[in-house]
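User: Structure please.
Assistant: Input sequence and predicted structure:
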Amino acid sequence: MDNATQPQPRETPHAGLAMATVGNETRKVLILQVLRQAITVIGAIILFRLLDAGPFGLLGMVFPLMMLPRMVATLGVSVAAVQKKHLSSNQKTALFWATLLLGVLASLATGIAGYLFAWLYAVPELVWVCWAFAATSFVEATGLTHQTLLQREMRIGRIAMIKLVGQALAVTLAVVVGSELQAQDQIAKYGIVALLVMEYVELLVNTIGLWLTAKWKPGPMRLAEVKGLLSFGGFYSTSSLVFYVGQNLDKILLAAMIGSTRSGQRFVGMYTSMYHLMMKPVYLVTDPVTSVMLPSLSRSSDRLRDYATLSRGFYLFTATLLLPAGVGLFVMAPEVVQLLGGDKWKPAAGMLIALAPAICVHGMINISGSLLVGRGQVRRLLGVSLVLLFLQAQAYGCGYLLATQFADQFDVTREQSLAVAIAMSYSVVLLLVSVPYIVICFRSVQLHSRALLFQFARLLCRALLMGAAVWFIRNQLVQYEWHLILRLLAGIAAGAALYTLLAWNDIKVNVLQFMRQRE
């Protein structure tokens, strides 16, 4: 018997208290995340015009692979510490030193990997680029334990505030460096330095803020206490690694195909920038969700009814916000690209149109990891991640064949056709696997998903109605030659108003009520 025929799970006092904390922290993080994303968009508008696509392409060629050592070194152990119900003082100290040592190894691996990338892509500059970015893994590792301790205490709002400050300072200094390089006519050669400054400043500010906020200092080195965390974290790191490779295989393959020339690097830069732009609404919603989801679910793992109540709230919150975002960006993508990059970035509009539908399901797929880890199902997480990676690889192969066969018929360059085809493959495979992926994840933690999927379908229908209306309005405004910014503002306003009208009851319950929970 499924959820559709069962009464909805009633909240126990534990669930009520957990939902109160979750709603309070989610509200704080969401507000701060909106501000953070606004800063990144403003920074992107300025940097896109200052640096052009070349430096973004150079970084985009190595960043997906460069992140792998950092993920292996830092992510699994910290997540294991958040999931663990009790963490002793000795385990905290052991966690810090283990993470720090792994961070050093990750930094060395990143620098050495530069030689491999330079050979693989036939771009010698990638050697110094990788060594320049190598220490970012160590800097992040120094503050990761303190972030973990704040997450365990559900002080998620403090973490979000620290990251907001770090983002603001990083973007400001990157723009200053970019402006100076432009004044000296050194963008083509050293434009990536602005992106390097942005990465280091953000991580350094985050680390300092986390140390000051957590008010915890590690003791002498003790690694024996961390064995249990390493065992659990090893499975999680492997799962995250597989999932990350699947999410970034498109960029790795595209860089290998076209990254050896300046023209190809430019299209790689456009693609990676459009990918990150597509992910901004996803992160806007899922960052606050996942930051509270894992600790809250872990504390409710032995109470299935509470676990179901919390999980359902997280998924409906995510779907209610991201379904209209994906449809809306699909319709308004040309205006968004024109506003951000100007005429030089026009070829990127097709990439963003192809990537935008992935927003509709990306959030639900992302938070499913926390659903499984909350009940210790890291082996199952690894299994579904491997299947997803296999399907994504197949899709990118099909995209490559289509692009090489039909590029001439669409009067576009080979580089542009490959970028658009890979983007389409990315979205199609996620849309196709999203339902079975969610069903498998829910069954793995002994929960039903039919009623939840029915609500997703209802929200999607309303988002598609909104998208059709916005598409009609946009076309009319284009015919009347409205200014770009006015078209964009009118489209956003019309879409927000219509979706609110169509889905008001869902917004009220799934978003507003969820965020208004009080302790």
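Confidence is low (pLDDT under 50) at residues 1-17.
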